[in-house]
Amino acid sequence: MNALIASLQFISALPLGKACPFDPKGIIVSFPLAGLAIGLVLAVCDRIFVALWTPPVAGVLDAVLLAAITGALHLDGLADMADGLYGRREREKALAIMKDSRVGAMGLVAVACVLLTKSAALGHVDHARFLAIVLVPAYARSAMIFGIRFLPYARGKEGTGSPFFETPLANRDFIFVAVPVLLSLFLGWRGLLLNLVFALGTSGLIYLYRRKLGGITGDLLGAMTEVLETVLFLAVCVGGAP
To answer: What is the predicted pLDDT for the residue at 242?
Structure first.
């Protein structure tokens, strides 16, 4: 429970009281459960939004609430990724751009595209809406475990994210990823699609990061969460009512 609370305190802005001791390994392993908790808060609020407004309006409010719950932490990483990796920049130049606190044109465009797409997708999820909204944030945050496991830290020892890469992850550290996977079975064929999109999206981003930088950073982990969250919400609304 302490690891879960620490994980939520690290990747969300939820008021959870006194800060738990910093435990990088426990925080990483608990990412899927932290995602489930975030998804549960979002799904409960979505019930209220749908009761008061039409689904498209509820979708916009869901996207805004999700950004607020996470303190826009992952959106900031998405903006940095878009600014740094867009175009044919050398590795060191890309890393320097991502470290810059300023947001460029590509970063703004990327954030706008993700928020618009996510809002539209959330407005059209009509099959097992509550469960789908709970599961997608869990999958998106599970992807970060794979990024940490299969890529080295691109900034080396001087980067602030280096403590999360000091202890290699073992197979047992992926145990909580099984929770959203098992729950996805209740979505029928959409659950299978969700798992397929998750596997392809996570693999594709890991390949992109390896090719561009030969590693990963905290910004890229946040961007991975945002990109996967968007495409997974699109996946669960496939075949929905027009």
So the answer is: 47
